[in-house]
Amino acid sequence: MSIWAAILGVGLIAGIFLTPVFWLMYGGFYTFFVFVSGLVAVPAGHLGRRRGKRLGGVDRGAALLGIVTGWLLILFSLLVVLAYIGLLAGLAVLTDSAS
Fold it and tell me: In this predicted model, what pLDDT tens digit does every residue of 1-12 receive, in sequence order?
């Protein structure tokens, strides 16, 4: 489960960068789904690590990858939100100084 959430999040990041027009139209949705994918990947990865420990180490690496990727997705989505806020603040300053 965690690996699928991580793959979905990485795919959404690729979608943001590969399709700038869609990002301008639907960037908020992409960013929200990246954040949600990260929120799903982290706990599912922890559950997978615990289950792998009980089963003798089966798929513990994949669960760790889900945890790490999930945290990176959360960080990326927060950075995108901060960049968007900075863009809006910069545009506000520019329009205020022009008038």
Answer: 777 777 777 877
**Residues found in the chain:** 99
- Per-position DSSP letters for 45-88, written without gaps between them: HHHHHHHHHHTTSTTHHHHHHHHHHHHHHHHHHHHHHHHHHHHH
Handedness of CA 51, 5, 69, 81 (dihedral sign): negative
Helix (H/G/I), strand (E/B), else coil: 22: helix
| Per-residue model confidence (pLDDT) at position 23 | 62
Side-chain half-sphere CA neighbours of 40 within 13 A:
15
